[in-house]
Design brief:
90 residues; mainly alpha; two-stranded antiparallel sheet; 2 strands; 4% strand; flat
């Protein structure tokens, strides 16, 4: 069991660092935020696990928060104004 979990951790570390190198840190962080949803979907497909209302609501909250962060990031690229009316680039 220790060997399997060690290999899983090393594999996960390898793939996340390879992903960061390939698509960049900011895009990889968005993908990493979806990990809880991925684990629920995999457990449902592979182990035939049934998900309850709370789990589905939690998945919806995670997806909506990722979408809101992504939409706010797009605004920052084009420049948004602060209270003083000056435009700033994030």
């Amino acid at each position: 069991m220790l060997l399997v979990s060690g290999i899983g951790n090393l594999g996960a570390f390898y793939f996340i660092t390879a992903g960061i190198r390939r698509i960049g840190a900011s895009a990889a962080s968005f993908v990493n935020m979806l990990e809880p949803i991925t684990s629920v979907v995999v457990s449902t497909v592979i182990y035939q696990d049934h998900q309850g209302f709370k789990t589905i609501c939690g998945m919806a909250l995670i997806l909506s928060s990722v979408l809101l962060v992504a939409m706010d990031g797009r605004k920052g690229i084009s420049g948004k104004s602060d209270i003083s009316g000056e435009s700033r680039i994030c």
